[in-house]
Amino acid sequence: MLTKSEATTLPAAASRRPGNVLEVAALAYPVVLQTFSDTLMQVVDSAFVGRIGATELGAVGFSGIWLWTTLCAFFGTATGVQTFVAQAFGAKREHECGAWVWQAMWLMLPVIVVWTLIVSAGFESLLRLLGPTPEMQARALEYAEGRFPGMPAIIVGGIMTACLRGLGMTRLPMLAAVVANLVNVGLDYGLIFGRLGLPEWGVYGAGAATSAAQWTYVALMLVATLRPAMAQRFGTWAWRPHAGDLRRYFRTSVPIGGQWLLDMASFAIFSTIIARMGDISMAANQAMMQLLSLSFMQAYGLSVASGALVGRYVGARDLESAERSHRSAMRLGTALTTAVAIAFLSLPDPLIGIFSEDPEVLALGRPLLALAAVFQVVDAIGIIVGGSLRGAGDTRWPFLVQATMAWGLRLPVVWVAAVLLQGGLFGAWFGELVYISALNAAFWLRFRHGAWRTMRV
Prior knowledge:
The protein has one domain (8-448). The protein contains 16 helices and no strands. The protein has helices spanning 4-8, 21-50, 54-90, 99-130, 134-147, 151-166, 171-193, 203-226, 228-234, 243-275, 279-315, 319-346, 348-352, 359-392, 396-420, 424-449.
């Protein structure tokens, strides 16, 4: 049976002025908690592996970044399900919502299975080409081999999550993510160190634990999505492919995937520049990245909530409420990232010490965390605006702009700051701040311009 809150799918705060801060917060907080649980998988992997050594810590980060680069286009495409579901729900066509899960599955599942096999066969050659130290290459490959079996699960879970978020059911994915994360923590402890009667697999064990947790999440989401009450109301058993819907989904969602891929690929090259600075630099970078995720998860949760509400109100042709939802998300994002900035500035050593006690890593990490305090405030703006644009169906313009800036601005500026001017790790991240500031200003101006008001998916 659906709970009372799920039966309405709108938070109680919606009874007030549509698009208010409480409505956004009611949708966002479960996504923030889910994202925290998802992020915690990588954080726990890093925290456990960091106890083995700095090389192992850097390898987990480096391998994880490149694995995600090979996968992010598919995941970004999967998130497009939310736009179609939210707009159908807002237009009172509830029986059409669930079918979008299966259109996405038909389009993506065969491709991701084949792609996983290709990536697993070529990942060792990719690592050699990228050129980190031989020790880091070996550990990065071990971690990747543990992660390969879970790659299709990330996409399948992402499709079902996007559907439930489009309906406003953000608590179900949160609960599933919490359970999956508990599985990851237990298996990490057992498989990395050979505890709980499990084999001692080290870095490989961290990857295998994450794969098992990802399939646990898929199993729980299948139960949530396919239960009879959901099928009756939202048509989640409507599994047949429909050529017209497949074309619509492809046209709107693939630019999202392309945007994710081109941006992430340039970031992966950015990370490779850092990896070539040495294992200590990569370890400090990994510690900073995991701490930045504390801010990212809040901004991403707000972007999902804003996207769902913008999509819903665009579907209902209530454009003022759509814009109000976006503004509410931006206000919440500013408040939350300010709190994170204060923590970064006041507690650098204890925060970095979660991941490494190496004095060199701590010395590199202190100025990085000060820069991160500013970076994460600016980054949150673009994340939230991007979610609002996707909710309205404005996907192709952001794809073109982000692709252009990621390769035409990010990499040249990072190279000059880090290598040419010999700014090292700090210089690389300063260049990243320049790029993210320019990109987010473009996104903000795009939303203010209002082209999304005339979009149709």
